[in-house]
Batch of 3 targets.
Target 1
Amino acid sequence: MPLLEQRDPIAWQGRAENRPYTQVETGGSRQTASDAGMVLELAATIATSPRGLIIVGPQTDAGLCTPLLQLARKTGYPILADPLSQMRGVNNDHDAIISSYDAFLRTEHILTRYKPQLVLRFGSMPTSKPVLLYLKRYASSCQQIIIDPQQGWDEPTQLAEQIFYAEVPTFIQELMHTLDHLESSDSTKALRPLNAQRERLSWTAAWQKMERTTRLALSTTIADFPELFEGRVFTELAALLPAGALLYAGNSMPIRDMDTFFWPQTNALRCLGNRGANGIDGVISSALGASAAGGSGTQAVLVIGDLSFFHDQNGLLAARLHKLNLTIVLVNNDGGGIFSFLPQAAYPEHFEQLFGTPTGLDFCPVVEMYGGTYERATDWATFRRAITHNLAAGGLHVVEVPTERASNVTMHRQLWQVVEHALQETDLPTGDEA
């Protein structure tokens, strides 16, 4: 039995006032929010919770961006947008989108200072581990609500207090209508503190300033790295990919680097990944399937590690047989790069054999066997030229980005330190002026 101080208070004692651990609102139809009374209760909670967040995890419906942005405007809540949420890049006319949270939520003084009261989550669980730890940190004091149109159980954390089964646009429309009603109702004014609006503005401004500070610190430091850095693949692609392009991210390090370093200039990109089926199998085949579904003119890019590439290299046959377009960015650190971030990397005697698993393979002959071209990037200028040319030419292409696992870990950790220092030197709004 764990010690008293190690016990999760909710897991051991239940929720306050004997409320259900997770209350699921099913209603009679997916087309409507399940219960008008529950929506009214949620609207009242939003009205009295200035420190709120909207988290949008992986989801494929780009049509949800508009209603989610409308909800953010109405509530004043920032949106933490997963790279597979289809919401990054819509920030040109709305600064509620936060995309660098994976970097700044690693900073202890930020975690301590910015305590959320309410979280509304749409889509699947986000990729970011810092987000998960942030939610767990405030599990007992922050109400978490999930809106799930699939009527499933997309809640692996077991932290949500409520799950609404409802179509997202309809749910948001009903919620915003109820919020409008509350704002115009004299009877509810007593529920809202007089300084709630000031606190709400301070909270939102803090997240926006953390976003700007973090992105500037990351981009400036990355540009000064003398060697190829795996995370820069996504900062480069964010600037290179044309509107309408498809970006597919492999698991392990690619999707995590995409989470931290992908800041597209347009939301007219389709961003996909195998987050529901994590692992190294079938990633090339999945990306080729997505390219085929997009049609003959699809400009598709896959970012993948060398082990994932090795495990599905024969999937390249589909590109040859069906004349599909796919440019593969092969991040080749000769092994499983993600394991170098874990504690077992401190035991080199067995690490390479059990976790690093280097292969030492040259993938060029395999790509050429399937009719593709192969190029090794020696610098970022070479990388940019190759990507631009390959997208215009169509067909199958592989651009290898050779990196080294140990130095990749060092550069990532250097970036976290740079972000922490930048945030400490920045005059941030308190976010909790109540």
Target 2
Amino acid sequence: MEATERVALVNARGIEVEFIPLGGTITSIRLPDRHGQFVDVVPGFDTVDEYRSDRRFFGALIGRYANRIAGGRFVLDGVTYTLPRNDGPNHLHGGPDGFHTRVWHVAPFKSANATGAVLCCRSPDGDSGYPGTLVTRVTYTLDDDDTFRVDYSAVTDAPTVVNLTQHTYFNLGGHDRGSVLDHELTVHATYFLPVDRTSIPTGALRGVIGTPFDFTTPKRVGADIGAEDEQLATVGGGYDHTFQINRGGATGLLPAARLFEPVSGRFVEIATTEPGIQVYSGNTIAEGGPGKGGHRYEKYAAIALETQHFPDSPNQPHFPSTVLRPGAEFRSATVYRFGVSGGWDRHRGDAEKRREARRMTEET
């Protein structure tokens, strides 16, 4: 499959997730509001060439290591590995040639109640400085219960580190509908990771209760974003922090976050097997060219909710380990459940008619 070919996953209710093989990049997600009106809720570009030059990671699969590694270096089994520094003094999102730049092999599939695709990528030993040949498989599945699931797996032939995520941003009012400051956010976390001025975790965990980082109950994204808080100032006047998901020792999928847009009624609920979720409020999203339809995304135009292990874990051994060894398999899953607060179910029949019309068109 060519890098430029677009793959559309559509469920029985008309929800659509579209992606391209380049970076496994999600280029659009079309969701209805409470009146059944569908809009695209993720920022991005009109052409694949624009995604090639993107530095905001719109919609991309991120690896080998999501988030930052301090100083672009880590030590594993007594050997020091050096990585490209593409974020000031640090390594970010696998470097400038990370998984977001690769053309993934794509194998679409369909079942009775779902449609999806398996994406594969082989990263050779020494790729961007990482040890071991890493073979990664990511499965996108959109089912008729309005759930979009991302399953990750990876194997290696030498000890290495792995941290994978999906970097889609959301504006549930529509990708071109202004800021997300009035979206309501819930994060199932009572601790977050404070960072230094280069956005590397200090190593501490800090409680969120009573602070601008308290999203334990629904709160406007912009409610405290302008507060006089040294952590907000550190990352440029917004959120770009990892929250430790409340797991209580449990394994498997657990709730991580919920994002709700009150005007349209759209929401997305996120559950994951990962220990953390990075909340990035689009503080620097304006630093780039225009997006879809020539629209310019301003500061806070969208929010990214990236499930992952902690930043800089290879250099902070008290964090959950990101080491992968031969004979073991990295496995992770994140589920996005889309919905509308009130009113959409009465439009279900229309959505199913659209799906049937699309199927008939494809067959002819």
Target 3
Amino acid sequence: MPTLEISEETLKKIKEQLGEDLELKEIKSMEDLIGETYLFQCARYIYYGEVKAVNSDYITLKCASIVFETGDYSNKEAEDKQSLPYNVKVMRGSIESFFKLKW
């Protein structure tokens, strides 16, 4: 997997836009996500939760929510985020993108 290198000036601009508490973490495999909270944009729904486990087929999220309306991603909370009752298994093949938010 290629590594993206950016200049200090670019990093400074990113921090200005996203906030000074920007946390940079190198992710080499999906297992590096365990213990962290992410938003997963999937083929049909958006899921948000802490990654509990990863295998070749799915990612298990605990304290998970389904997000029906995100609103602006810079908001402190989603406009419509509904808690799910149990751990959720998100099929890896349905994930289009994932990222951290301040929700």
